[in-house]
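C-alpha cells
===========
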Amino acid sequence: MVFKKIVLLILLVISVAINAQQQPSIIPKPVDLKMGNGYFTIDGNTAIKYKKSQKELKSTAHFFVSYIKKISGFSLKLNKAAAKKIELVIDKDILDEGYQLNVSPTAIVIKASSPKGVFYGMQSVFQTLPAIRTNAALEVPVMQVNDYPRFKWRGMHLDVSRHFFGPDVIKEYIDLMASYKMNVFHWHLVDDQGWRIEIKKYPKLTEIGAWRVDHTNLNWRERPQAKEGEKPTYGGFYTQEQIKDIVKYASERNITIVPEIEMPGHVASAIASYPQLSCTQQPQLPLTGGDYTNMSSNYCAGNDEVFSFLQDVLTEVIALFPSTYIHLGGDEVDKAPWKKCPRCQARMKAEGLKDENELQSYFMKRMEKFIISKQRKMIGWDEILEGGLAPEAAVMSWRGEAGGIEAAKMKHNVVMTPGSPCYFDHYQSGPEGEPFAIGGFNTVKKVYDYEPIPKELNTEEEQYVLGAQGNVWTEFITTTEHLEYMVLPRMAALAEVLWSPKENKNWDNFNERLQYHFKGYGQKGLHYSPGNFTVNIKPSSQNGQLLVNLYSEALNGEIRYTTDGSEPTLQSEKYEQPIAVKSSFVLKASTVVDGQIKGVQAVKQNFVMHKAVGSAVQYTYPVSEYYLADGPNSLTDGVRGGNAPSKYWHGFSGKDMIATVDLGEPKIIKSISLGCLQNYGSWIFLPQSVKFEVSNDGTVFTEIKTVSNPIDINQKTALYDFNATFMQQKVKYIRVTAKNNLCPPGHSGAGKSGWLFADEIIVE
C-alpha cells in the first residue's frame, strides 16, 4: 500500500512537471501573463483572419504571413477556412498601443484598439518561435496576455553623419526596434562631418557635404584636417526615394521616424557646401574627424539668407517625414564666432537681445514658427533652454536630467536621454577585449536600472515626460557589426524600461530571459555583447574604515579574487562579504560562470593605504554628475585613477575643486598630494594651481603651500601629483583647492571651461 502511494506521488509530480510550462522569454515583459497547458501549433493548415470591415488590419495580417513564411516556409491562408486560426480583432475598448493575446490549442486571438497594438501582440507571439528558418514545429505556448506600454516615446537614435550606414542597415535597425516594441527612430541625418539627406534645391549639400577624405583607419580624434587636392572618397547620402521607402518600411512596423536637421551649430558640412551661410563666409573643406581648428561650424544668425535656406531645406524634409516632431538639434553651439560677427551683433541690437544665448533662442524660436506653420512641432537638445525656450518646443535631455526637469516644470514635453546610461556608444563591458569606444561605461544592468521619471518632478510634472531613448553616436563605430554589438542587448534592456510597469522590473528575471535572445542573435548572425563579466569594484567608507565591495552582472556568476597581485583561478578566494582595506595591496577579481573564468582578463585595482583613507569629504562645489566616480569619498578611497578618463576620476567643469577632508581625529601628518589628469583631446586639463590648507576646527584654515602647474597645457596627456611637504604637525581637517583651467588658444574649445579630473588626496 505504501509502495502504491509512493508510485502515485511520483506519477503526480511527473504529470505536474509535464503540464507546467515555463513562461516564454518575452522582452519587454508583459504587464500581465498567465500560462496555460499545451501549445497552438502553426502549420500549413493555419489561417489568419480579420473582419472585412476592419480593413486597416490588412497590412498587419500580411506582415504576420510573411514572417511565418520566412521562418518556416508555411504559407498561411488569409481569411479562408482552416482547422486552426489566428484571429486579429480591433476592439476600441483596449488601451492605446495595448493588446490582449489569448492562445489556446486551437486558436490565437489578438485584440487591440488599432493595428499598432495588434502588431505588438504579434511581436510577443514571434518571440516564442524560432529565430531563423527551421523544420521544427512552430509551437506557441497556451497563455493569456494583457499588455500595454508605460511610455509613449520608446526610442532609439542613430548618427549616420559621422559614419554612413546604407538603407539595408537602417532597415535592420528598424527591425530590431520593432521586435522590442520600440516606436520612435531618431535619425541624425546632419552634422559637421556629413550631410546625409538629398535636398533637391541645394544639390551641393550632398555633392560636397556628404563626402570627406577617408581616414577611417585613424582614431577619430587623431584624423588630420583635409588639404586642398585630397580626394574625398568616404561618405554617402540617402536619396529622397530611398527615404520614402525607409519611412514606409518603418511605418509598416509602427515606428515613427523623427529626422534631425542640426542647427545652428554642428553644420560644417553645410558650410563646406555653401560658405556664405557662415559668419566668415570663407570656403572650407568637409571635416574629416574631431579637429575643428579654424573651421566654421555655425550658421550666421545675422544673415537672413540662412533662414531662407533652412526653410527651403525643412520644406523638403517635412514633405518626406510625416512625424509630428522635427528635431532641430540646437546643441553645443560655439558662440565665439557670433561675438565677432558684425551681422550677428547687429541682429542682437535690432532684436534687443542681451547676449549670444538669447541670440540662439531667437534663432530657434524663429525656426519653430516655421515648423508650426507646417503643422509640426519642434524638438531639440536641452541647450535650446539657454536664452529662453521656444513656446511649444519639446526638449531632449542629454546633459544629465537637469534640462528635462527644467522643461517639465515649464510644462514642456520631454524625452529623457542622459549620457548615463542612455549613450550606447559608451563601453558596456571591459574595456579590455571590447571594441574601442568613445569612453564612459553603460552596462546592460545600468540601462535596465534606469528610471526615466526624475524624483524631482511631482505627479503633474511627470506627465510631460514622454519617455526616453538610447543614443548611438558613431565617431568610433564604422561597421555594421560594431553597430549591432553596441546596441545589443542594451536596446532590449531599454525597451523593457520603457514598456513594462516599474513594479514589474526584475534584473535577475530579465537576465534569464535575455539568454534566450542571445541564442536568437547568434542564430541570425547578429553581433552582440554576451554580457558584462567585468567585476565591479566599489570602495565604500564606514566609520572611517575603507571596505571594498565586488559585484558581477553575470547570470549565476560568482567572484574569485586575490590580494597579492596574482591572477585569480577557480581555487582563489570566493567573494562573500566586503573586503576590509587595512594596508596597501593589489586586488584582482574575475567572474566565474559554469566553472569557467569569464572575460578577457581579471579586473585589477591598486589600493594605496594612507592617513586619509576612508575619511569623509565635503565639496564647496558639487562634482559633475557625469563623473561621480565611486561617490563622495572617491578622493579618499585609496584608488588611483590611471592614465585615461575612467570611473575612478572625479570631474569638475566651470568651477574650482574645493574639497575638505575630515580625518575623524587629529593626526600627525607631513605631506599632502592631489593626483590630477590631463587629456587634451577630451578637454581635460591639469589645474592652474593647487592650494593645500589645514585646520583643527574646520573653520579657520592655515595655508601650507600653493603648487603651480609645471606641465604645458598643450601637452596631449599627463598624470601629475601636486604635492606639499612640510614640517610634521597634528591636524584634523585638510582643504584642497584646485583652480580650474580654460581650454587654451588653438583648442577646439578655446576660451571655454575645461574639465578638471582628480583621483586621490594622499595624506602621509
Q: What stands out?
A: Residues 2-19 form the longest helix (18 residues). The first strand starts at residue 32 and ends at 42. The chain is about 25% helix and 30% strand.
